[in-house]
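Researcher: Following up on the earlier apo prediction. This time include the ligand. It's 2-acetamido-2-deoxy-beta-D-glucopyranose, with the SMILES given after the sequence.
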Amino acid sequence: MEAMGVAAALGLLLLTAGGSTGDEAREAAAVRELLVRLLGPGPAAAFSVSVERSLATESGLDTYRLSGGGAGTRVQVLGSTGVAAAAGLHRYLRDFCGCHVAWSGSQLRLPQPLPAVPEELTEATPNRYRYYQNVCTQSYSFLWWDWARWEQEIDWMALNGINLALAWSGQEAIWQRVYLALGLTQAEIDEYFTGPAFLAWGRMGNLHTWSGPLPPSWHLKQLYLQHRILDRMRSFGMIPVLPAFAGHVPKALTRVFPQVNVTQMGNWGHFNCSYSCSFLLAPEDPLFPLVGSLFLRELTKEFGTDHIYGADTFNEMQPPSSEPSYLAAATAAVYQAMTAVDPDAVWLLQGWLFQHQPEFWGPAQVAAVLGAVPRGRLLVLDLFAESQPVYVRTASFQGQPFIWCMLHNFGGNHGLFGALESVNQGPTTARHFPNSTMVGTGMAPEGIGQNEVVYALMAELGWQKDPVADLGAWVTSFAARRYGVSHGDAEAAWRLLLRSVYNCSGEECRGHNHSPLVRRPSLQMVTTVWYNRSDVFEAWRLLLTATSTLASSPAFRYDLVDVTRQAVQELVSLYYEEMRTAYLKKELVPLTRAGGILAYELLPALDQVLASDCHFLLGSWLEQARQAAVSETEAHFYEQNSRYQLTLWGPEGNILDYANKQLAGLVADYYAPRWRLFTETLVESLVQGVPFQQHQFDRNAFQLEQTFVLGTRRYPSQPEGDTVDLVKKLFLKYYPRAVSF
Ligand SMILES: *[C@@H]1O[C@H](CO)[C@@H](O)[C@H](O)[C@H]1NC(C)=O
Ligand SMILES: *[C@@H]1O[C@H](CO)[C@@H](O)[C@H](O)[C@H]1NC(C)=O
Ligand SMILES: *[C@@H]1O[C@H](CO)[C@@H](O)[C@H](O)[C@H]1NC(C)=O
Ligand SMILES: *[C@@H]1O[C@H](CO)[C@@H](O)[C@H](O)[C@H]1NC(C)=O
Ligand SMILES: *[C@@H]1O[C@H](CO)[C@@H](O)[C@H](O)[C@H]1NC(C)=O
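Model: Understood. Below is the ligand-bound prediction.
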């Protein structure tokens, strides 16, 4: 079979999961309602939206068709599904109206009358699926969302053509019913679940107990949200992926069933066994299919099903045995528990395990997992394909269908970063791989709300066979749409960012922010980057030059803050290098100068700039947490969950600063005090003539970190100060320094 043939055949096999023709009217209505939310009722009336299944290609691929527009004529948007129609609408707004739909502030100024589509335009996607989310996005980004925020996100998903996404909320409420039915006590269940901010890892069996228990109100609220999320996703014709049983069970199951065969896994992520080392049910134990089907039956009774289920047994955890027969049995057990309840079940597996522990997952081990499920029934997410694609070394997942996913972001970190060239080429290369079984493209960031340009490109690629021909031209038009005006300096700034921070490749290329700004200081910090810092400083200057024209654009102000933030991140590295050099040479004056500027001036100035934009406020993140609570005790508990996630991650800084963010409040009260302590400790060391002791410093730093986490200070949840004034002030003071290093 030639390359496209294999994927198309598998795509067809998976098509059974799609919606039926009877839903056309419902899907069209959902897109019309989206239009009203996006543009308001007046402008929305200038569009006519319909859904016709027959528009799909012969092999069933999503298609949209645009026509009409111009004076006195409505714009006609036709889609094979609601999602396809929404993607067509987005295409029209983007390419004909120059609009931009964005997390950081949409630009939706419509030309009047609406531009005509000169020739009927029909576009089909090359793949069955456009996937969205990572199990961790649920914890790093969606954690405290209410329905209003979810609604916005599902609109964003539809406009970007996403037709497959996790719907992960509320699963603990279902598990609670199952465990109670199995004879566990409420106290045992409460002891098992993690707190809200760490559920992603509880669900994968990495953690239990830590930062829990979940209050009853949490379960109720998540059940309510999940129903609304599912209704809305389905109304667009999206396929929500529900969770299934992967094999992890609470320890208390062994109290109720003393004969049960469980294996205790090793510890995870520097957590000890009080919080990790979860119990895995043996695949041949009769309880395996029982627990698995109890859960799936209860879940689908509550929520219905679209027949695709996610489960990850060995995510970042070494299996108890590397015997292929064991791995095959463990995999088959998960699949059989699914099909016992839903004979049409397709299993969505995160392929992260294969690339995270390549030394364990040799060819025999990978083959055991991939071969344990009938071909076409295991849908693998090649999760980090822009950097370490797994399909290339597994013969396209040995014939199982896979989705080429860009992971891009770890921990929801800020920090300008992207591998745009690799993202741009990746899906096409994967499609042309010999006997490719690629059936989709996807975005699987651990956290969202940063580096929007990367997501905009990836979303477009979901509807294209070929890479964007000229990324320079593409990013130029991206900037013009984003700000609503073409501005030479702003566009030049974006081309500089493209060739530097967004053209990442090689060793130092990290989606995870390791800037000294957000890390506990030491004398061994790495400051090398994959780009020329001058490009960032020059982009900063150019954006500032454009402020007089563009300052009224919210996305522009966001970018001005974000690039200033990045410039400060670069400056921190440069001042830190000065400090280290001075310290090693035992030169007190340059040490105090560099350390003094960094800790007492630069970071407080950054905090002020961040405080001027609603997207960079610790206060609004913590306020969301508090709003999710039904009592002051709960509000305090939720806030502490949030503070832990952003900083220490575990009780002792177990995964310290992994989910670092650069937020107003966090910079002033967490990062800056740590840098002040470091500066003072080094100065003290030179003055007293005693060596710097990293261990002692770490202990003292931990005290500061913990004080922040346990603190109760309230931070503003509304922006304060004028962004442009604050950026100018910072620029005038530091730009000369930036370019003279
Ligand atoms: C795990 O660490 C916590 C502190 O973080 C401690 O209280 C607990 O005793 C430890 N448990 C084990 C099993 O070592
Ligand atoms: C328990 O499960 C393991 C792993 O599947 C298996 O090797 C072992 O034989 C089982 N033990 C018993 C007593 O059934
Ligand atoms: C592709 O599949 C065909 C038919 O199964 C096989 O003969 C051929 O060797 C495969 N090509 C590669 C490169 O694996
Ligand atoms: C990115 O870098 C590569 C070399 O590593 C270069 O060939 C390519 O042109 C660069 N792309 C952009 C958009 O600057
Ligand atoms: C970085 O860019 C600046 C300004 O364009 C240039 O002077 C410098 O040589 C570049 N540095 C490197 C290492 O390429």
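Model: The pocket of 2-acetamido-2-deoxy-beta-D-glucopyranose (ligand 4) is lined by residues 421, 471-472, 498-499, 503, 505 (CB under 6 Å).
Researcher: Noted. I'll compare it with the apo version next.
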